[in-house]
Amino acid sequence: MKPQLNDYQQIFFIGVAGSGMSAIAQFLAGLGKQVSGSDRYFGSGSADDIMQKLQKEGIACYPQDGSGMKPGIQLVVASTAIEDTVPEMQKAKQLNIPVMKRSEVLAMIARSHKTIAVGGTSGKSTTSAMLYAILRKAGMDPGIISGAGLVSIISQGKIGNAAVGKGEWLVIEADESDGSIVQYEPEVGLLLNIDKDHQDIPELMNIFNNFRQNTRQLFITNRSNKLAASLSRGQEFDFSVNGEPASFTANDFLQKDFLSHFSINGYPFQMASLGMHNMENAVAAVAVANQLGVPFSVCAEALNNYEGIYRRHQFIGQHNGIMLIDDYAHNPVKCAASIKACQPLAPKVVAWFQPHGYGPTRFLKDDFVEEISNALRPQDEIWMSEIFYAGGTAVKDISAKNLTDAISQKGKNAFFVEDRNCFFERVKPRLIPPAVLLLMGARDPSLEKFAFQIWQQLQQ
Asked: Count of domains in the chain?
């Protein structure tokens, strides 16, 4: 028999400051569980704000030295980055405390709710947030467990990536990066897209096919994405953009400044989000909500007031004709979409990107080069700093310079600046207004501070 949520009351998280881990920790605390956790970033200055917000939710926080492993702990939750040598893992083994991965605990939570699982290689956080906003507007008071902070929840002084609702529905992100998506058995499964990311296409197709088979009631796919469309059940609902025949079709996209205008099945929508990819996310959220009984009018009103999510085309400020935008884009398709979404805002986009992980960068090198090269206009630029290394074992046989060199060979403006702290002084002479300065990257908890460091330099 699969473990049940009611089997555990005292739960400890190793790596609790991570976006996926902190979301589950907060959700369980909101359910009345006794939650504690540790993180190697606590005390370093880069995660102190997260620690304080977790503590406000009643979650006891400790350094990652084993000191938080108190008597009575019934379950230890470890992120995928945690190795067996970590003191908490050693203690859990000594005390025979069961250890679960984040995905296993999320699957356990999902079994205790009516769940909508949002899957795909791009857009999960945004679509989950849009759907959450729509269901709340409809009075359904859902819960959410997300990989990113929702501005509407952040404004309450919280991290923003989790909320316990009083209604029956729970919206979760179903992550394919570690294959954990196959553990979920949601009532509703939503497949946004399939593009090469952490695995090759054949492996992704197998993972998402299992996701489809495990969905209990309603499975909705993106007809505009050929690989996702190939997994459609045929008799089920689907969505698309720009005229591709589907149950729900978004058309007539127009971006004016930070406002996007479009229609879904002829009904007008307006949203303060950049890029056609967000119209695609919106029609996916509307497709699910409508099938749960929410009319288009309520969906449109909710999206008109949608506040977005943290570090997704987050507008930092504008100074002397230079607009600074911070974005979580980190895989080839997302980086290309992020650049394209900024192009209507100014004649020139200067983008900076920090890849994360030597393995992922090596695996996706050719895709990064192809996608980013195709997205850049002749006047646009891409800058990269060295790959973010989160620790652990890694073969450091690739550099971000390999990517910029290859993009340069395609005739595009690409530059490498190893130390990101030297980036602004190098790029400053090339920031000719009006222009967008776009910062991209993920997994590095100091990226928010870096964005505001650039903002301060821009104003000097």
From this structure: 3
Residues 6+ apart with CB under 8 A from 108: 2, 3, 4, 5, 100
CB 186 within 8 A of CB 110: yes
Same domain assignment for residues 275 and 142: yes
Closest C-alpha among 279, 278, 286 to residue 334: 278
Q: Which helix (H) or strand (E) holds 297?
A: helix 296-304
In a domain, 106, yes or no: no
Q: 2 lies in a domain?
A: no
pLDDT digit string, tens, across residues 295-337: 999 999 999 999 999 888 899 999 999 999 999 999 898 899 9
C-alpha separations of 425 from 232, 260, 452 in Å: 50, 34, 15
How big is the chain by its Cα radius of gyration, in Å?
22
- Do 338 and 420 reside in the same domain of the chain? yes
The token pair at 345 is: 């805002």
**Are the C-beta atoms of 225 and 231 separated by less than 8 Å?**
no
Q: How confident is the model at residue 257 (pLDDT cuts 50, 70, 90)?
A: confident
Q: 3-class SS at 91?
A: helix
pTM comes to 0.87
C-alpha–C-alpha distance, residues 364 and 176, integer Å? 16
Instruction: Assign residue 336 the CATH number of its domain.
Output: 3.90.190.20
Q: Rounded distance, CA 65 to CA 156, Å? A: 31
Q: In whole angstroms, how far apart are CA 400 and each of 4, 327, 404?
A: 44, 18, 7
The per-residue b/e assignment along 192-212, b for 16 or more CB within 10 angstroms, e otherwise, is bbbbbbbbeeeebbebbeebb
Per residue in 55-91, pLDDT tens? 999 999 999 999 999 999 999 999 877 888 999 999 9
Contact 328, 316 (CB under 8 A): no
Domain limits for position 433: 314-459
